[in-house]
Amino acid sequence: MDTGNVLASLGVEGATAAAHALSLPAEAYGNDAQLEVMWAMKAYNHAEIYFNLISSVDPKLLKLTKSDEEIYTKFREAFPDLSIQILDPELLKSAEAKENWRPFCNQFEGIVEDFNYGTLLPTRIQFYAIEIARNREGFNDAVHNANSKTSRKKDQR
What we know:
64% helix, 0% strand, globular, 7 helices, mainly alpha, yst0336 like fold
């Protein structure tokens, strides 16, 4: 999906309206297909940027926020046995999971900007918590290592 062309086709007023719409809480909307597409484009861009980041920087050295240590510590205190190698969506989206995640997420209000905004995961703080853990625990090393090998092969040509 080429988001640049889509955003350019909106014009300045349309892009401004889209940015405003994306800043409102989810409760302000029903299931608007156009809004779903805008969120999907934003999530796609976020995924692409994050993939490029962990491809080029050793994930163990990566710092996603100024509160990484606190996020990681509280995440593993709250979810010591959560498997993050391959995420089960039910562990994030089920009614029981939402009840378990809510206190964890809410403690970062005022600490992590836009902590409850949707990203690739239901909220930004969930994304940070899981990805900080995946980086520290070595689950994103394969992405970085695969890119490093590809870069070395290109350099040898």
